[in-house]
UniProtKB/TrEMBL annotation:
One of its GO terms (cellular component) is cytoplasm. SMART domains: S_TKc. It catalyses: L-seryl-[protein] + ATP = O-phospho-L-seryl-[protein] + ADP + H(+); L-threonyl-[protein] + ATP = O-phospho-L-threonyl-[protein] + ADP + H(+); L-tyrosyl-[protein] + ATP = O-phospho-L-tyrosyl-[protein] + ADP + H(+). ATP binds at K97. One of its GO terms (molecular function) is ATP binding. Residues 68-323 form the Protein kinase domain. The keyword Transmembrane does not apply. Its EC number is 2.7.12.2. This is mitogen-activated protein kinase kinase.
Length: 354
């Protein structure tokens, strides 16, 4: 059925043509005034109805940029800085990520990618996005604040504590991977913790949502020190890159670094590219020390397999004895219910793309 169109009126047909030299001045925006931007729309792989309803309820009282007091800088990253801010009306603290100036298209795409991912995620172990502003041409994103900062430089020799940390990271990773999201930059500085000992995955500036049949995600972004061998050297694994398995390698390197208190390879993580490539691609994967428990040594081995298909998935690692048996009381009943609804049976390898 064709849409009904209003019939042309006689007045419209006889109306004289407008003069082309008539113009109206465009309204000018005060650059000192911050304008809230609409969050990007949800993609086809939108979160569940419970996630959508929680987001809707949170948006009933939008946060105003004018009510934010910038306190001090707490970090820096690609294209900008991160500040701790106070929302005066509620007394709550947030992290404000500011992307400075006019960026190249590639940087703008990176910003939009981060915001889109943050917009759609709803998981207790992934940083939440609360608002988005345009302040004098600067894109500013209001994020959840983690009061104890990142885990960079932290040593955790106590295995039950390390198990709890690994469990939380895996819970976030399993959620992301189930939504076909690859982080691609898992490392200690992108793992944040608060005073309640909640660990959350942050910084999606180089993350990507994988389409079902496109993009093997083999572009060179992220931190080389925590990259998997096949990502650094594309000749490995017949040039096939599995982004999910790459995240698991990065997780294994990070967890082993927490246990040892140092980067687990023979070179420092700030070494030059050639030294890191030789250490990661040409030597055997690092192992947990002999004095560590059998379960921990097995867990690290399951993460740091040179052959990507042999690495366990995030869903499978949540069933690993090191994760499932140590400190299980700290895992809430609600998370246990969600976990069993979300995960496949243990030891069943899920395809990377499909």
């Amino acid at each position: 059925m064709k849409p009904i169109q209003p019939p042309p009126t006689l007045a419209n047909q006889n109306r004289p043509r407008r003069r082309p030299d008539l113009t109206l001045p465009l309204p000018q925006r005060d650059p000192s005034f911050a304008v809230p931007l609409p969050l990007p729309p949800l993609s086809n792989s939108a979160p569940s109805s419970s996630s959508s309803s929680s987001s809707a309820s949170a948006n009933h009282t939008p946060l105003s940029f004018s009510e934010l007091d910038r306190l001090h800088r707490i970090g820096s990253g690609t294209g900008g800085n991160v500040y701790k801010v106070l929302h005066r009306r509620t007394g709550k603290f947030y992290a404000l990520k500011v992307f400075h100036g006019n960026h190249e298209d590639s940087v703008c795409q990176q910003i939009c990618r981060e915001i889109q991912i943050l917009r759609t995620v709803d998981n207790p172990n992934v940083i939440k996005c609360h608002a988005l502003f345009d302040n004098a041409g600067e894109i500013q994103v209001l994020l959840e604040f983690m009061d104890e900062g990142s885990l960079e430089g932290i040593r955790i020799p106590h295995e039950p504590s390390l198990s709890s940390l690994a469990r939380q990271i895996l819970f976030g990773l399993a959620y992301l991977h189930r939504r076909r999201i690859v982080h691609r930059d898992i490392k200690p500085s992108n793992l944040l913790i608060n005073s309640r000992k909640q660990v959350k995955i942050a910084d999606f500036g180089v993350s990507r949502i994988l389409a079902k049949s496109l993009d093997p995600c083999n572009s060179s972004v992220g931190t080389i020190a925590y990259m998997s061998p096949e990502r650094i050297n594309t000749d490995l694994n017949q040039g096939v890159y599995d982004g999910y398995a790459g995240d698991i390698w990065s997780l294994g390197v990070s967890v082993l670094e927490f246990h040892l208190g140092r980067f687990p390879f023979d070179v420092g993580r700030h070494a030059d590219w050639a030294s890191l490539m030789c250490a990661i691609c040409m030597s055997q994967p690092p192992k947990a020390p002999a004095e560590a428990s059998r379960d921990f040594r097995s867990f690290i081995s399951c993460c740091l397999q040179r052959d990507p298909p042999k690495r366990w998935t995030a869903a499978q690692l949540l069933y690993h004895p090191f994760v499932s048996q140590n400190g299980s009381n700290s895992f809430t009943n609600q998370n246990q219910i969600v976990l069993h609804q979300m995960l496949p049976p243990p030891h069943q390898r899920t395809p990377a793309h499909g």
